[in-house]
Specification:
The chain is about 30% helix and about 20% strand. The protein is of the alpha/beta class and about 325 residues long. It has 2 domains: about 200 residues, 3-Layer(aba) Sandwich (D-Maltodextrin-Binding Protein, domain 2); about 100 residues, 3-Layer(aba) Sandwich (D-Maltodextrin-Binding Protein, domain 2), CATH 3.40.190.10. Strands 1, 2, 3, 4, 5, 6, 7, 8, 9 and 15 form a 10-stranded mixed beta sheet that branches. A 5-stranded mixed beta sheet has the order 12-11-13-10-14, with no helix packed on it.
């Protein structure tokens, strides 16, 4: 049985199981004993020859995300069609690769990054696992990996870098910029392998002694110690902390890293340099789909948001 047949059979079983169980709660997911959740049901019409990927792409296009699934990855998450299945053990999701409401003839697997892969960099994950076809890599990490783990960006998902440093405005009422943080001795918590904190140190905006590279994406550290500053994304943490973190439940203040002068393309869809030629026929058709999906998300985000929330839950 081919990979395509396996995915098709799994989707069919997921649809049947979900129907039999009457899993009507769209954002809840229905657990199973094998570590997977059937999260979406439905069927798609086959794509036209113009948008079919069956002859040019792998049977299952595997994409390694750089962090937990969230809205800045909508350009690739939006390619996940109905009937997808969440694997709660690997924090991944698999289903038909859909575009414009049609089945392109191949499947897609999206793998969560960051904490889900032990904060391993995406280029290193791509070189360690040959099953990964594409990865989301920030522009600075493309450069940092160029010597030993070279990857090539084929399209960015975002126009601007959404990285921020955030702080409690009650504890630090006079802080307005990243430079203001550097005038203090407060701890700045970031994840390991981030490059922009070292750039901020090199530019004299922060002190090396301030950096703490233990950030794990959870709010506990910040909530428990509002004296610190912490990394985040402008499209994520400000809303999450104010509206979805009961232990905080109030606004935070933040400054964009790009406004300090560090503005790199974020979330570049990338391919290993040694696989660029072989994947080029696929990318020539797939990249415009990713770009259009990201553009469409801005105007109509609800469906992709529901998929993100379902996957995370």
């Amino acid at each position: 049985m081919t990979t395509r047949d396996l995915f098709a059979a799994r989707r069919t079983r997921a649809i049947a199981a979900a129907t039999a169980a009457l899993c009507a709660a769209a954002l809840a997911g229905c657990g199973s004993d094998d570590g997977t959740d059937s999260a979406s049901t439905g069927s798609l019409a086959p794509a036209s020859a113009e948008t079919s990927l069956a002859e040019v792409c792998p049977e299952n296009v595997v994409v390694q995300l750089q962090w937990q699934p969230q809205s800045d990855m909508a350009g690739v998450i939006g390619l996940l069609g109905p009937g997808y299945q969440v694997d709660t053990d690997t924090k991944s999701v698999s289903g038909p690769l859909a575009f414009d409401g049609q089945d392109t003839g191949v499947d897609i697997t999206l793998r969560a990054g960051g904490p889900a892969i032990g904060f391993q960099s995406v280029p290193s994950a791509m070189y360690a696992d040959d099953s990964i076809d594409l990865g989301l890599v920030h522009g600075d990490q493309l450069i940092a990996a160029a010597t030993d783990q070279r990857v090539v960006g084929v399209t960015p998902l975002l126009q601007y870098n959404p990285s921020i440093l955030m702080w409690d405005p009650e504890t630090h009422p006079d802080q307005k910029t990243i430079a203001d943080i550097g005038k203090t001795d407060e701890t700045v918590v970031v994840s390991k392998d981030q490059i922009f904190p070292q750039w901020l140190v090199a530019k004299g905006l922060l002190k090396q002694s301030q950096l703490d590279t233990s950030y794990d994406g959870a709010p506990a550290r910040f909530v428990g110690d509002p004296s610190i500053s912490q990394q985040g994304f402008a499209n994520s943490e400000p809303y999450t902390y104010e509206h979805e973190t009961p232990s905080w439940d109030k606004p935070i203040a933040y400054a964009m890293v790009k406004d300090a002068g560090y503005d790199v393309y974020a979330s570049n869809v990338s391919v290993r340099a040694d696989r660029l030629d072989s994947l080029t026929p696929c990318l020539q058709k797939l990249v415009p789909m990713i770009q259009q999906t990201g553009k469409d998300y801005v105007a109509a985000p609800d469906a992709i948001n529901a998929t993100i929330v379902d996957w995370v839950s």
